[in-house]
Specification:
The chain has 266 residues and is α/β, with parallel strands linked by helices. It is built from twelve helices and eight strands. It binds 2-phosphoglycolic acid (PGA). 2-phosphoglycolic acid (PGA) binds next to strand 8.
Length: 266
């Protein structure tokens, strides 16, 4: 998603001028038939949303999701992509392949990919490069482990993740990057960062973007929070000045809950 024209070239002080994005991350859930059914259920509930609405689904569900979302305000994303254009990478899918079927979004660097599949900041950087080159919008996930938070090195960890993943990304390309702050200890655990904790890190990320790019880029970049966001706690989290939406796992699999989160963001 490119940012609204109003954001280009002007200095924004106000959260109201950033369009929040609520993205579902379905993870390894739903068959194509179930995908069609869930999107058909979500569609009428979010049709008047003023925020961006994205559902990121398993590769096998992408065609069904694109078809079901056609003509609606729901955008479709993949949950990962490979960094190479093509080649001997059994089981992988390239960013160009995603673009070729009309998928506009892709999640990169999710903590489950880092934790279970050996992905690193460097592979996140290479995937970001491939996704941007293919014309996709990236949802770049960053976040600290519980031990790292306890050692007070949260921003060092996140700063490193962001600096590496965005190495070589131009200011123009940054318009197609959303950052999702997802404390690893809050993902799928039911433990949510407090609204203040989420805002503190999101604000620090915005400060880093200002250092790396410019104040205008920092003011316009969408920075989500993710980690056990649900229909009950969304309004408080999304009400924070530096929280511009959410990346939602478990709660995105229930149409009514997902729609409530969308409503809280709008
Ligand atoms: P959760 O997952 O909402 O189930 O904690 C969030 C995510 O992994 O993006």
């Amino acid at each position: 998603m490119s940012r609204p024209a109003i954001m280009k070239g002007c200095v924004l002080m106000n959260k109201q001028l950033r369009k929040p994005v609520i993205a579902g991350n379905w993870k390894m859930n739903k068959t194509p038939v179930e995908t069609t059914a869930l999107i058909n259920e979500i569609k009428p509930l979010v049709k008047d949303a003023s925020c961006g609405v994205v559902v990121c689904v398993p590769y096998i569900d992408l065609f069904a999701a694109l078809e079901a979302a056609k003509g609606s305000n729901i955008k479709v994303g993949a949950e990962n992509c490979h960094w190479a254009k093509s080649g001997a990478f059994t089981g992988e899918v390239s960013a160009d392949m995603l673009a070729s079927i009309g998928v506009p979004y892709v999640i990169i660097g999710h903590s489950e990919r880092r934790q279970y599949f050996g992905e690193t900041d460097v592979t996140a950087r290479d995937r970001v490069r491939a996704a941007l080159d293919a014309g996709l919008t990236v949802i770049l996930c960053v976040g600290e482990l519980l031990e790292e938070r306890e050692q007070n090195i949260t921003m060092e960890i996140i700063g490193k993740q962001i600096k590496i993943a965005l190495a070589g990304v131009t200011a123009a390309e940054l318009e197609r990057v959303i950052i999702a702050y997802e404390p690893v200890w809050a993902i799928g655990t039911g433990l949510t960062a407090t609204a203040e904790q989420a805002n503190e890190v999101n604000k620090a990320i915005r400060g880093l973007i200002e250092q790396l790019y410019s104040k205008a880029d920092a003011d316009s970049i969408v920075i989500q929070y993710g980690g056990s966001m649900n229909a009950q706690n969304a309004a408080e989290l999304l009400g924070q000045p530096d929280v511009d939406g959410g990346l939602i796992g478990g709660a995105s699999l229930k149409a009514a809950d997902f729609a409530k989160i969308v409503e809280a963001a709008c």
